[in-house]
From TrEMBL:
GO terms for cellular component: monoatomic ion channel complex; plasma membrane. Residues 200-370 form the Inward rectifier potassium channel C-terminal domain. GO terms for molecular function: G-protein activated inward rectifier potassium channel activity. It is found in: Membrane. The keyword ATP-binding does not apply. This is G protein-activated inward rectifier potassium channel 3. It is a multi-pass membrane protein. One of its GO terms (biological process) is regulation of monoatomic ion transmembrane transport.
Length: 416
């Protein structure tokens, strides 16, 4: 018997007609994986590296390529500058001022050169365009003083230079425009509510379990700040490949997941963590998905939380996603809210924790059909009021057995 066990330990487990004798290498007694086994391992590794459409931190994993109409970015130059990275924005901010100062400094030096002011620096009877302007450096400094309205009083324009007066007006107007544009860009970029979304958290996993005798897909959201999100709303999208009846293949088809739009449950009062529930009914994309099918399926659930920041009044959006591996069948979230002395306390250590609960492994459609068959049987098996109590007890036992049998058959059908 021990000899048979030692021989069987060197053989890979195969099933049915696919069973083949093991392949041994010349330098080792261990079996070499077959081609089919290597392909299976390769598929398993590929499945573990599933590509996300939206990352867990909310960043969309999409890049635009071969954009030929780049002029559209220049037509909306304000938004383009706001969307730039901080190091690029600071570089543009510095260059915008430096170039305008240098440009008008050259013009002030050129006017002084053409008028001959640089040749009469020591002549007390000569009236220059700008007093105490003796070179390019002083012209550059005068340009900075004019545009920033510093006015040190050492270099000043005279009334004998009409071209200088015109240039002074142009620089004052253009300088005001540059200030308004660049300061506005920096203010909008600083006050963007993107960082507010960092304190809006989503549970690391989504769960599927029974709630009020109905299969529901659930995930949890929470706000770490004391300042609330006003008019908060939640949405969910199913990202899955689809092929239409005409043969068209849609690689990233978006299907809406109802999380309470019709009943108003999608409008959240996000003071404490909330569990968002999607009832899997005949209108749900998960209506015919069982536990066994869920393990083989490929999709992504994108959840979007939107609202207005109470402190600033600006709109904020937080995003996250769940892959198939992050959807737990037959689990429920741990409670995080406890009642203390005069207040409620939220324990965020249990925010992502779940625990297993008894849940049928069949699809919601199969569960609804089994429940309907059970209800129909109980309806027709109700005894008459004239029947004896013994018969009533018998019928009740039969009804309970029928209910348990229906759920058992539901699970068995899903496994098959």
């Amino acid at each position: 018997m021990a000899k048979e066990n030692s021989n069987s330990s060197n053989v890979f487990e195969t099933s049915g007609s696919d069973a083949k004798p093991p392949i041994f290498s010349r330098h080792s007694k261990l079996p070499v994986p077959t081609k089919k086994q290597r392909e299976t391992e390769r598929r398993d590794k590929k499945s573990r590296r599933r590509q996300r459409y939206v990352e867990k931190d909310g960043r969309c994993n999409v890049q635009h390529g071969n954009v030929r109409e780049t002029y559209r970015y220049l037509t909306d130059i304000f938004t383009t500058l706001v969307d730039l990275k901080w190091r690029v924005s600071l570089l543009v901010f510095i260059l915008a001022y430096a170039i305008t100062w240098l440009f008008f400094g050259v013009i002030w030096w050129f006017i002084a050169y053409c008028r001959g002011d640089l040749d009469h620096l020591e002549d007390q009877n000569w009236t220059p365009c700008v007093n105490n302007l003796n070179g390019f450096v002083s012209a550059f400094l005068f340009s900075i003083e004019t545009e920033t309205t510093i006015g040190y009083g050492h270099r000043v324009i005279t009334d004998k230079c009409p071209e200088g007066i015109v240039l002074l007006l142009l620089q004052a107007i253009l300088g005001s425009m540059v200030n308004a544009f660049m300061v506005g860009c920096m203010f909008v970029k600083i006050s963007q509510p993107n960082k507010r979304a960092e304190t809006l958290v989503f549970s690391s996993h989504a769960v599927i379990s029974l709630r009020d005798d109905r299969l529901c897909l659930m995930f949890r959201v929470g706000d770490l700040r004391n300042s609330h999100i006003v008019e908060a709303s939640i949405r969910a999208k199913l990202i899955k490949s689809k092929q239409t009846l005409e043969g068209e293949f849609i690689p990233l088809n978006q299907t809406d997941i109802n999380v309470g739009f019709e009943t108003g449950d999608d409008r959240l009062f996000l003071v404490s963590p909330l569990i968002i529930s999607h009832e899997i009914n005949e209108h749900s994309p998960f209506w015919e998905v069982s536990k066994h099918q869920l393990e083989k399926d490929e999709f992504e659930i994108v959840v979007i939380l939107e609202g207005m920041v109470e402190a600033t009044g600006m709109t904020c959006q937080a995003r996250s996603s769940y892959l198939v591996d992050e959807v737990l069948w037959g689990h429920r979230f741990m409670s995080v809210l406890t009642l203390e002395d005069g207040f409620y306390e939220v324990d965020y250590n249990s925010f992502h924790q779940t625990f297993e609960v008894p849940t049928p492994s069949c699809s919601a459609r199969e569960l609804a059909e089994a429940t309907a068959r059970m209800d129909a049987h109980l309806y027709w098996s109700i005894p008459s009021q004239l029947d004896e109590k013994v018969e009533e007890g018998t019928e009740k036992e039969a009804g309970s057995k029928e209910r348990n049998g229906s759920l058992t058959n539901c699970e068995n059908e899903s496994k098959l």
